[in-house]
Each structure stands twice: as structure tokens, then as C-alpha cells.
Amino acid sequence: MTVTGEVMLDKYIFALAKQMGVKLSKIVIVDGKEVGVLDVHLLKLTAKGQTVHVLVYQADIVCLEKRKPCDRLDSRVRTALERLQVAIQP
Questions:
Q1: Of the four listed, 2, 19, 87, 90, which is most buried by Cβ atoms within 10 Å?
Q2: Which run of H or E residues covers position 83?
Q3: Which helix (H) or strand (E) holds 52?
Q4: How far does Cα 74 stand from its chain's mean position?
Q5: What count of other Cβ atoms lies within 10 Å of the Cβ of residue 89?
Q6: Concatenated DSSP letters for 12-51?
Q7: What string of pLDDT tens digits covers the 90 residues of the chain?
């Protein structure tokens, strides 16, 4: 993943989390791995001491870099943030 892709992904996730009312304290992007013909990256999203993980595809990050809509990335990140919301509820 390029530095530009990583920065754009961070900004995208923080903005989406803000829209959903989740205050993320940290995003960790684990180096990608080839799984068959796909490059995947593991994201660790943390808020209030709780962490959820989500796999994202390199192709989705490329779409983000090219400023193209990527429904799969949006869906995966929203689902992870929803799981995080459930985890941090009292």
C-alpha cells in the first residue's frame, strides 16, 4: 500500500466513524498479504479500549486513491464500525 493510500484510508475511516458517532482512538493498518490472487490488508479499529478487525482489499484502496466510489470498502468499514459501536456500549 502506498503512503497516499494509507493516508486516504485513514481519513476516509475517521470521517465515516465521525458520521456514525464513533470516536476512534486508533487505526492500525497491518501490512498486506497475498491471498491467492488478492492483496488484503487487516485494519484494527479501536475506540474506548475495544478493537475490531476488518479485511480490506488492495483494489478497494486503489479505488479510494483514484477517488472512485467503492461500495465494498464502504460496506466493510461500516459493518466494522457498527460492531465497534455495539462493543463500546455500556
A1: 87
A2: helix 71-88
A3: strand 50-57
A4: 8
A5: 8
A6: HHHHHHHHHT---SEEEEEEEEEETTEEEEEEEEEETTEE
A7: 677 788 899 999 999 999 999 999 999 988 766 666 668 889 999 999 999 999 998 888 889 889 888 899 999 999 999 999 999 987
Distance CA(69)–CA(66), nearest Å, equals 9
Please report, in angstroms and rounded to a whole number, the separation of the first and last CA atoms in the chain: 36
Residues facing residue 53 across a β-bridge? 44
The residue type of 39 is: D
What residues does 65 pair with on adjacent strands? Answer: none
* CA 74/CA 57 separation, integer angstroms: 12
Crossing angle for the helix pair 3-20 and 58-65, to the nearest 10 degrees: 90
